[in-house]
Amino acid sequence: MAIEQPKKREIRPGRPGAERQVVKSKSGSTVGHIVEGVFIKVASRSKHFLRKPQAIAIDAESYDRSRILFTAIQVNDSDSGDVFTLSRAEFDQYRQTLDRGFGLQYFVPLERWHFAAAGSAQNGALEL
């Protein structure tokens, strides 16, 4: 009889004991991670932010399935290191929907997000 090995916990470097939960879309692609009650998405502003309207979008099905696990959202711009944050309540209040061929997305205009430039004192971004 084989002995089942315990599953390894994924630990995020830099924060001892901090677990990271991967959030995937229906197709299996990674949408983001949940760390310490924060949904973290890394996206290239030049490729993944909406241009019209200027906004940040999140896969609706993945958001709805995992929203109970986090209270805040953080989007790290991989181009600049800038950080955009919103509470889950703010996201729910301001979100709109769209589908441009990649499935239903929730989006919030950029002016609603709290912004911290890369390297600024306000940029207390959680790292993945």
**Biggest pleated-sheet summary:** 6 strands, mixed
Total number of domains: 1
Work out the helix count. Answer: 3
- CA distance, first residue to last residue: 38 Å
Q: Give the ordered list of helices and strands.
A: EEEHEEHEEHEEE
Query: What is the share of helical residues?
Result: 10-25%
Structural class: mainly beta
Regions with pLDDT < 50 over 5+ consecutive residues? 1-14
Give structural notes.
It is a single chain. The protein is globular. The chain contains 3 helices and 10 strands; from the N terminus they run βββαββαββαβββ. Residues 1-14 have low confidence and may be disordered. It has helices spanning 45-48, 60-66, 88-94, and strands at residues 20-24, 30-35, 38-43, 50-51, 54-59, 72-77, 83-87, 96-98, 105-109, 114-116. The relative contact order is 0.19. The chain has 128 residues and is mostly beta strands. It has one domain (20-116). A 6-stranded mixed β-sheet has the order 1-2-3-6-7-10. Strands 4-5-9-8 form a 4-stranded antiparallel β-sheet.
